[in-house]
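Subject: for your reference before the review

Hello V.,

The reviewers asked for a structural picture of the protein, and I figured it would be easier to keep everything in one thread rather than splitting it across files. Below is the amino acid sequence we used in the manuscript, unchanged from the supplementary table.
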Amino acid sequence: MIQFKIVDGQIKLPLKSKIILGIFVALGLLFLFLFGMAFFIFALIAGAVLFILNLFQGKNKSRFTQGDSVEIRTHSPFSPPPRPKSRPKDDDIIDV
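And here is what came back from the structure prediction:
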């Protein structure tokens, strides 16, 4: 690595050193840019592949028959389960 020792504060950095320093800074920024773009392009390709695979997968068919005692979930695991039909609907009553 190139090291400069400047004892006196009045001595200017030579033009050749300034140019070399500028080239190293530009190369560093170029490598950062290329790494970022490569990461973005790989993520974009992976997303496109997963999207295309999801298109060709089709609907999931139930693996259970009517005789199985396993309850098949018909709602999203992030939403509350649906209410039973026999329970009266009392959403319009406000308790004060």
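For the response letter, the relevant points are probably these. Residues 14-57 form one domain. Residues 83 and 89 are 9 Å apart (CA to CA).

Happy to draft the paragraph if you're swamped.

O.
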